[in-house]
Every structure is written in C-alpha cells, then in structure tokens.
Amino acid sequence: MPKITIEIDEEIYKFLQKKAIPFEETEPNDVLRRLLLKEGQKTKNTDQPVIVRKTIISFPVLPGEVPKALEHILQVIYLVKSKKMSRMNGTHYLAEFHKVFPTTIVDKYTRQLGLTAHEFDQLLEIENSESLKNVLHRKFPDHFRSINEYLGKIDIF
To answer: Alpha-carbon distance 62 to 95, whole Å?
Structure first.
C-alpha cells in the first residue's frame, strides 16, 4: 500500500491523541483507520503508517543577536496573540519547535522576567499591552528596537 504524507493542524492532532487506545494505537494512522474504516473494511496494515506532520508556523524574523530567552518569549507572545493559541499550547508547540522541554520555555517568561505564569497571562490578555512591552524593555534594554519591531508585526500591538 503506497504511503502519503499529510499535514494536520494542532487541534486535529490533539483530537487523535485523545481518541487513541492506550498501548494499542501508537500512530495517528492507527486511530484514523479505526475511526474512519468500518469493521468489514479493515485490512491488516503491514506497511509503515502514514507520516503526519503538524503544521509549521513561521515566526517573524528576529536579528541574530537577540538572546534565546527574548526570542522564546516573543514567540510565545506571537503564538498567543496572532495564532490564538493558549499560553500552554503555545509553550508546548514552541518546546517541540526548538527541541527543548516545555519548562525551559516557561522559565523564560516567568523566572527570567520575574513574573508568575498568571501575571504573564494577565499581560497577554491586554489588547495593546504597553505593560508587557515595558517588562520586556526593562529585562532586555539593549534590544528595545528589536522588541518593538517584532511586536509591531503582531496585529494587535
């Protein structure tokens, strides 16, 4: 059976994860096969499963001298504000994207900014958040212009 690569968005991927039968269905193809094919149509799948790639999000470009902490914080803001992800979904997406643990990303916008996750969430909720910009400017004073340019690319800033 020929194999086909498909792209699915994060919401569909998470749906498939929730529908998977633990320890039996380890690939998205297994879940799709069970959900989409009727019992009489099932065939033994001896080939490799379909490769599923999550949609890749392209972030606005930052200058190379921007510290990783600032890059990650700005990318979380971008995912929340422009892509309408929750902070936690954005954090997990970004962790996968950069191949780091989610706690590494959380550390950037909490401990390194001197905020709790709840305080960061409150700053994200404000439509045109000068307060969030001010926090970033205080923490990264040498990157004032990069912060403003990046946030300027997000429609609501």
So the answer is: 18
What single-letter DSSP state applies at residue 157? -
Query: Which amino acid appears at position 96 of this protein?
Result: E
Output the DSSP codes for 126-142. STT-HHHHHHHHHH-GG
The string of pLDDT tens digits covering residues 60-82 is 888 878 999 999 999 999 999 99
- Would you say 9 and 55 are in contact if contact means Cβ atoms under 8 Å apart? yes
Q: Is 26 helix (H, G, I), strand (E, B) or coil?
A: coil
| DSSP conformation class of 89 | H
Give how far Cα 11 sits from Cα of 8, 72, 84, 85, 114, Å: 8, 22, 12, 10, 31
Q: What is the pLDDT of residues 68-127, one digit of tens each?
A: 999 999 999 999 999 889 999 999 999 989 999 999 999 999 999 999 999 999 999 876
pTM greater than the 0.70 cutoff: no
H-run or E-run covering 145: helix 144-152
The alpha helices in 82-129, defined as continuous H runs, are 87-98, 102-109, 117-125
The DSSP code for 52 is: E
Residues in the chain: 157
Q: 62: closest CA among 150, 152, 151?
A: 150
